[in-house]
Design a protein that fits this description.
single chain; 258 residues; mainly alpha; two-stranded antiparallel sheet; globular; membrane; lyase
Length: 258
């Protein structure tokens, strides 16, 4: 039993719940007090280094989410058994947990290699992926600010392939896509808040991805959104030291040699 049962189908929730959650979670970061003592970059750096305005970022994210929701609806329509009785047979919790980890591995694998290729191919970087890196200093709302083609190839197709290979149901996919969305937003939030569970559990976190967004890190830390497995295997892993800046002005993630 889930709270939306009887009101919305699992397919509708799978397509739209991650979008709603994206704006709730990233919006919460946006309206937080300044919290300068926990920032990886000062507010002055955000204003000076970023090459795109907040309204443009919001429009770009909404465009990607429109495509994302459309593809998700098509995916669920294609994979739903037309002869189904409408009675959902949900796998056991251990089976769903295994599907979760399979989907995480598939998504990490897809995004690593597509993301890395977009950096290595000069044409793709210049005309497509560089749009995301116009946010030199990332913030939560800009987590999905991409060129529309990149959004389709990297995030939307990555989610679809993860869903198909893991064999999860639409109901399990609701939780997986929502979790992946929260993790992606958190990786771009630019804050190192005490007690953040993602910073405790995941090595691939806000500071890890911040290294990638800085000029010295464009050839490192491609892994997203969960684990740095492929970075470590293929030599693109850039660890970091988290150094506190003077006068309580936050932290700085400084790259160190592996």
């Amino acid at each position: 039993m889930v709270f939306w049962q009887g009101y919305l189908s699992d397919e509708v929730m799978g397509a739209f719940a991650p979008i709603v959650l994206y704006w709730i979670y990233s919006g919460a970061y946006q309206i937080l007090p300044p919290l300068d003592r926990y920032r990886l970059h000062t507010r002055k750096e955000v204003e000076q280094k970023n090459l795109v305005s907040l309204p443009v970022v919001i429009k770009g994210v909404l465009l990607q989410q429109l495509v994302q929701a459309t593809v998700a609806q098509l995916l669920f329509f294609i994979t739903t058994d037309a002869n189904s009785t409408g009675i959902l047979v949900q796998p056991s919790y251990p089976a769903q947990l295994i599907q979760f980890f399979i989907a995480m591995f598939v998504m990490d694998t897809w995004q690593y290699f597509v993301h890395r290729y977009m950096h290595m191919n000069k044409f793709l970087y210049r005309h497509i992926h560089s749009q995301h890196h116009r946010l030199v200093v990332p913030y939560a709302i800009g987590a999905l600010y991409n060129h529309p083609l990149e959004g389709l190839l990297l995030d939307t197709f990555g989610g679809a392939i993860s869903f198909l290979i893991s064999g999860m149901t639409a109901r399990t996919a609701v939780f997986f896509f929502c979790f992946a969305t929260i993790k992606t937003v958190d990786d771009h939030c630019g804050l190192w808040l005490p007690g953040n569970i993602f910073h405790i559990i995941f090595e691939n976190n806000t500071a890890y991805h911040d290294i990638h967004h800085q000029l010295h890190g464009l050839k490192f830390n491609y892994s997203q959104p969960f684990f740095p497995i492929w970075d470590k295997i293929l030599g693109t892993h850039m660890p970091y030291d988290l150094v506190e800046r003077k006068q309580g002005s936050g932290f700085e993630a400084k790259p160190v040699k592996d």
